[in-house]
Specification:
about 270 residues; single chain; Immunoglobulin-like; 2 helices; 2 domains
Length: about 270
């Protein structure tokens, strides 16, 4: 009986662990990258975030990172990823990660880690410099192609809590559109389309918020929608086809297994 219970307990713990990580809203690419980690690595770009990692072969309670462009005033907490034995198998260490979104205008990250209250340079990152006080700072140069693109949808500045959604397929024959199931989507034309948006902000009802074609720019569809603060998921419904937003690089898995676009309202 005990042997039967053990796999069930392990499966339950694994599912709970996955749910905990997914609640932090990692991207699909981040999910895949974390699954391949077997130790701490030098910083790298994953989607629009910088992935920082820390591993220890002893028990650590808290890992954080503080950045020079924030004057080291904020410590961003890492998430505990999974147990890690490192060079000394049998010891009780852990592997931690932080997916840090690159702020607009920041081309170089200078940072330090804070591990159980002790400040240090990132041991997994060989790039570093010393400041005028002799403190060692870890460095990461943000690749040109990875610097933040304008977020979509965008807030309407003159109306608080209103987001502007834009769908503009361009040349529909190029196959640049993608369904929520990851398959290329082709349209016969880009004018006179029936475009709607469904998401967590309207209970996934595509009939509530149609997008109107801009008379001054045929083939461009726009809607301004009141949206509450927080994280939201959505997709477009174009002539009955459910498509992810081609202008929004931020995506995540829906609990039913398909992909949706995502954004946050601060």
């Amino acid at each position: 009986m005990a042997r039967c219970k053990r796999p069930l307990i392990v499966a339950t713990l694994l599912i709970g662990w996955c749910v905990l990580v997914w609640t932090q809203d990692p991207s699909i690419a981040l999910d895949l990258r974390l699954a391949r980690l077997d130790g701490a690595i030098a910083p790298e770009m994953v989607d629009d975030d910088v992935l920082l990692t820390y591993a220890s072969d002893r028990r650590v309670h808290h890992v954080g990172a503080a950045f020079a462009h924030e004057n080291f005033r904020t410590v961003h907490t890492f998430y505990r990823w999974r147990p890690f034995n490192g060079a000394r198998p049998g010891t009780g260490g852990d592997l931690f990660f932080l997916a840090y979104p690159v702020p607009p205008g920041v081309e170089r990250l200078e940072y330090r880690l804070v591990v159980d209250g002790v400040w240090m340079a990132d041991p997994a990152n060989p790039a570093a410099r010393r400041d005028r006080d002799g403190t060692r700072l870890s460095l990461f140069e943000v690749p040109q192609h990875a610097r933040p693109r304008p977020a979509t949808p965008v807030a309407v500045a003159e109306r608080r809590g209103v987001m502007r959604f834009v769908f503009e397929p361009g040349d529909p024959a190029l196959g640049e559109l993608e369904s929520i199931y990851g398959r290329p989507a082709f349209l016969a034309h880009n004018r006179g389309l029936d475009v709607r948006v469904a998401g967590t902000f309207n209970r996934w009802d595509p009939f509530l918020h149609p997008l109107r074609e801009d008379p001054a720019r045929p083939g461009r569809y726009v809607a301004e929608i009141p949206v509450a603060r927080g994280r939201h998921n959505y997709y477009f419904v174009v002539d009955g086809r459910r498509l992810v937003d081609p202008h929004n690089p931020h995506q995540r898995y829906h609990r039913d297994g398909y992909t949706v676009s995502t954004f946050a309202v601060p």
